[in-house]
């Protein structure tokens, strides 16, 4: 079994983590150092509701998650870690033991994510924090939550997504931390942040054969997503970006810029294989290119409404060059890619519904969220973005003094009538235990697209999930 | 983050009960589904002579009107690569939407001009079909479980041409089919025709048509196949075939779209040549009658 990552010959990422460990060492002796730790244990079960399968096969995931959040040190110098440990055994012993796998093979990523088929350890936030007024320095795995949108953030350049459960991972699992050095400068009138990310972390896709995999099968061929190899750790592939934020006339404004590996890969049909007694195998390789991005975001509160928008422009973002796919023999593999002007934006608002004024004993908060996301290449000869034209509506209501949380998320992909309906009810027993029951229905049309639209691809992945969590 | 107060025993039990209920329901036993497997072997010189070329086996919906027609990949229900170690193939049709009792067509081809990327089926490629040598039917009826497709010869080469025939039936002597009767017509290379035994070797069939007298003509059209047996001499540039005859079967005993023993046999008395484009055949198809019928197999 091949092991990738910090133990490979390209071990700069490994050296980075040694440096972080060495810098953390003095904390041991630091006076007034204290240890704070929190966490939870969660069992997450997912049952596919597609009726065209044996019942035992419907159980797609039984996952145990142990979350640990640790802060060690003083406020001005501390080590912070927010980590998750996952274990997804095949409890039901169905025909396919690989309904849910974290990776196809054992691997260690540049951000210290350690994955096997049934286990994984993530350290999406693991950094040293050092503050000396008016600066703050952080070194290690970090999440840069740039942007104001609620679902997809065009200006969150650094942190690649984890698409191993499509768009349905919890918010705290949807983005991956990147090993980086960040410096923040606090001024009375603005805040500036500079980020240097020196080891590439690729977007995650579910491995082949997984319930959430992107394997597509038609009469002539199947597709598989190839290995999501990261870019080599070298100067040309480092990411550098900055953001300056200020509040002007009651509006939070930010400007940002970035140069480095594109967060989103170009999914390139790369090669064809002919496995015996199997359909043709078309391998789709996620490829990363260096891009320049410029963005802005704002947020403005008006009464019970919070309006927000963000946009990013790139002069050189790549995509696949279109081909005539009517005759298979004329299709060139691999597909060419080409850079183009590109813009993506998200706009929406949160409405804090004054439910308390209507129901005096409501005992909670009601928020209605609208978010619209769109991405476009200027070059009409390129295939469009994978995620675009997404309208998200969400109603979130906490009541009975926080004991019950009801959330209904509806996402519409307007190009192919794609939709996700996601009601979720969480019961907080306020003794450490919480239960969450959710149902997700996915639908979409195939239309005449050359590549299967993702909402259509996952149309049979409707599921019921049941989570039980104990907060430590 | 606020640390939660200690849970009482009663409150601790409830989630575990829910959890166990969930797991016990979710882990039920499933039932086996019936498989439909189609397996066989391929043969033909093109296989061994072109070991680096893709060899593919395709299942198509049954089209009784166009047996031996070069398939369009757009119509394929399922296609797999053959196992080149022994040129066998095995298609699992269980989840293809095809069910036992349904008829399918089966074709295999070697993509001779493959140069990387996705394969195609076009001029220069070698192709073979499942076809019943007696009934000239390409229909294969699926059964539950394993279906043996036998040996599939890949022995036809695809040519790029639009050659077709226009022919007439003799109206003044022998058996004269009446208006509305169905006639099956085959363009056959003379090498595959044994008039004494009244048999046709399906390999040498280069065209076929099913026509209704008085409705589809005269003259009646017949498109030549683009896939032609390698045992037939073909002029490639320009396309041409020589020494062909037309054989007709009066499909009336019973009228089922297939040749049956006892049905009257007709033939053009003289051989003819064809070129690309429309070829008007001067010789009319003549049904001698008097026992000139298809023999029992």
Describe this structure in words.
The complex is a heterodimer of chains A (472) and B (297). Chain A has 472 residues and is mainly beta. Chain A has one domain (12-471): Porin, CATH 2.40.160. Chain A has 3 helices and 25 strands. Chain A has helices at residues 12-24, 355-358, 454-457, and strands at 34-48, 59-73, 77-87, 107-108, 114-115, 119-132, 135-142, 164-167, 178-186, 191-197, 216-217, 221-225, 239-248, 251-261, 266-273, 280-287, 290-302, 305-320, 337-353, 365-377, 390-399, 404-413, 418-428, 433-443, 463-471. Chain A has an 18-stranded antiparallel barrel. In chain A, strand 2 and strand 3 (77-87) form a beta hairpin. Chain A is globular and about 65 Å long. Chain B has 297 residues and is mainly beta. Chain B has 2 domains: 36-158, Sandwich (Immunoglobulin-like), CATH 2.60.40.1120; 164-286. Chain B has 2 helices and 22 strands. In chain B, strands 2, 3, 5, 6, 7, 9 and 16 form a 7-stranded antiparallel beta sheet that branches. In chain B, strands 11, 14, 17, 18, 19, 20 and 22 form a 7-stranded antiparallel beta sheet that branches. In chain B, strand 17 and strand 18 (239-250) form a beta hairpin. Chain B is globular and about 55 Å long. Chain B starts with 8 loop residues before the first helix and ends in an 11-residue tail after the last strand. Chains A and B meet through strand 1, strand 2 and strand 25 of A and helix 1, strand 3 and strand 4 of B.
Most extensive interface, residues per chain? A-B, 48 and 47 residues
- CATH topological fold name of the largest domain in chain B: Immunoglobulin-like
What do we call the CATH topology of chain A? Porin
Instruction: Provide the low-confidence segments of chain B as ranges.
Output: 1-32
Poorly predicted sequence stretches spanning 5 or more consecutive residues of chain A: 1-10
Helix content of chain A: under 10%
**Tell me, what's the shape of chain B?**
globular
CATH class wording of chain A = Mainly Beta
Largest sheet of chain A: 18 strands, antiparallel, barrel
* Total domain count of chain A: 1
- What's the total helix number of chain A? 3
Q: What is Rg of chain A?
A: 23 Å
């Amino acid at each position: 079994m091949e092991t990738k990552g910090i133990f490979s010959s390209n071990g700069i990422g490994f050296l980075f983590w040694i440096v972080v460990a060495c810098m953390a060492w003095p904390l041991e002796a630091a006076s007034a150092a204290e240890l704070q730790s929190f966490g939870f244990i969660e069992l997450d079960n997912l049952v596919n509701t597609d009726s065209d399968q044996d019942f035992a096969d419907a159980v797609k995931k039984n996952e145990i998650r142990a979350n640990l959040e640790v802060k060690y040190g003083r406020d001005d110098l501390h080590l912070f870690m927010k980590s998750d440990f996952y274990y997804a055994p095949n409890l039901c012993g169905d025909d396919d033991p690989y309904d849910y796998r974290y990776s196809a093979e054992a691997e260690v990523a540049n951000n210290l994510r350690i994955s096997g088929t049934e286990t994984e350890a993530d350290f999406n936030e693991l950094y040293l924090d050092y503050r000396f007024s008016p600066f703050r320095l952080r070194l290690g795995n970090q999440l840069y939550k740039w942007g104001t949108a609620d679902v997809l953030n065009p200006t969150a350049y650094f942190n690649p997504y984890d698409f191993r459960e499509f768009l349905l991972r919890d918010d705290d699992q949807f983005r991956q931390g990147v090993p980086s050095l960040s410096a923040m400068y606090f001024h009375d009138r603005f805040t500036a942040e500079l980020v240097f990310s020196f080891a590439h972390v690729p977007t995650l896709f579910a491995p082949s054969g997984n319930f959430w995999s992107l394997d597509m099968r038609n009469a002539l061929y199947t597709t598989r997503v190839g290995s999501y190899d990261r870019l080599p750790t070298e100067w040309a592939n480092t990411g550098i970006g900055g953001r300056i934020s200020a509040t002007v006339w009651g509006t939070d404004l930010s400007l940002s810029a970035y140069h480095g590996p594109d967060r989103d890969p170009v999914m390139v049909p790369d090669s064809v294989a002919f496995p015996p007694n199997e359909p043709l195998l078309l391998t789709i390789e996620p490829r990363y290119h260096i891009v320049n991005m410029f963005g802005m975001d704002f947020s403005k509160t008006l009464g019970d409404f919070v309006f927000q928008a963000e946009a990013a422009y790139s002069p050189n973002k790549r995509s696949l060059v279109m081909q005539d796919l009517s005759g298979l023999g004329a299709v060139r593999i691999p597909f060419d890619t080409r850079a183009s002007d590109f813009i993506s934006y998200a706009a929406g608002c949160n409405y804090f519904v004054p439910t308390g004024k209507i129901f005096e004993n409501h005992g909670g908060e009601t928020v209605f969220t609208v978010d619209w996301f769109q991405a476009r290449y200027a070059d009409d000869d390129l295939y469009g973005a994978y995620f675009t034209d997404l309208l998200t509506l969400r109603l979130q209501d906490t009541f009975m003094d926080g004991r019950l949380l009801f959330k209904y998320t509806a996402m519409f992909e307007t190009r192919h009538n794609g939709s996700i309906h996601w009601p979720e009810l969480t019961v907080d027993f306020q003794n450490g235990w919480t239960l969450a029951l959710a149902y997700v229905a996915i639908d979409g049309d195939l239309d005449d697209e050359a590549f299967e639209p993702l909402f259509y691809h996952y149309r049979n992945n409707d599921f019921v999930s049941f989570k039980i969590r104990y907060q430590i | 983050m606020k640390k939660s107060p200690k849970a009482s025993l009663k409150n601790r039990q409830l989630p575990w009960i829910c959890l166990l209920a969930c797991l016990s329901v979710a882990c039920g036993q499933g039932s086996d589904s019936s498989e439909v497997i189609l397996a066989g072997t391929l043969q033909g010189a093109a296989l061994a002579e072109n070991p680096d070329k893709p060899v593919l086996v395709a299942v198509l919906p049954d089209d009784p009107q166009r047996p031996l027609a070069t398939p369009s990949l757009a119509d394929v229900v399922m296609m797999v690569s053959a196992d080149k170690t022994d040129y066998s193939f095995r298609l699992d049709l269980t989840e293809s939407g095809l069910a036992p009792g349904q008829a399918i067509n089966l074709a295999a081809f070697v993509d001779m001009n493959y140069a990387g990327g996705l394969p195609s089926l076009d001029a220069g490629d070698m192709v073979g079909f499942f076809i019943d040598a007696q009934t000239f039917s390409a229909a294969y009826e699926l059964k539950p479980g394993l279906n043996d497709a036998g040996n599939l010869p890949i022995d036809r080469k695809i040519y790029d041409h639009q050659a077709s025939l226009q022919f007439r039936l003799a109206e003044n002597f022998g058996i004269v089919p009446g208006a509305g009767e169905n006639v099956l017509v085959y363009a056959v290379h003379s090498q595959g025709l044994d008039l004494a035994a009244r048999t046709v070797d399906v390999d040498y069939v280069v065209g076929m048509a099913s026509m209704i007298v008085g409705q589809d003509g005269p003259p009646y059209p017949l498109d030549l196949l683009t896939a032609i047996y390698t045992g037939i001499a073909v002029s490639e540039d320009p396309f041409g075939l020589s020494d062909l005859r037309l054989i007709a079967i009066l499909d009336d005993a019973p009228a089922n779209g297939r040749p049956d023993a006892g049905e009257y046999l007709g033939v053009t008395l003289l051989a003819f040549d064809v070129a690309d484009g429309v070829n008007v055949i001067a010789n009319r198809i003549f049904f001698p009658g008097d026992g000139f019928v298809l023999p029992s197999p």
